[in-house]
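step=predict obj=Cbb3-type cytochrome oxidase subunit 3 n=63
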Amino acid sequence: MDYGTWRGVFTIIILVLFIALVIWAFSKRQRKSFDEAANSIFEENESSLNNRSDDQQESKKHE
């Protein structure tokens, strides 16, 4: 096998892996976990904001 054949085989392998990755990324089974991961940053921010406002309310009670 010469260099051109190896390049062709390597290109086909990369193409197949890319198509498999795209199918996996857009599959319906993965959608729920991806949505949870995408929204997790907002849940963390809301909980930290709620904790901060609770702390401020408690400090006002002690004054």
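step=describe
The CA atoms of residues 25 and 31 lie 8 Å apart.
step=end
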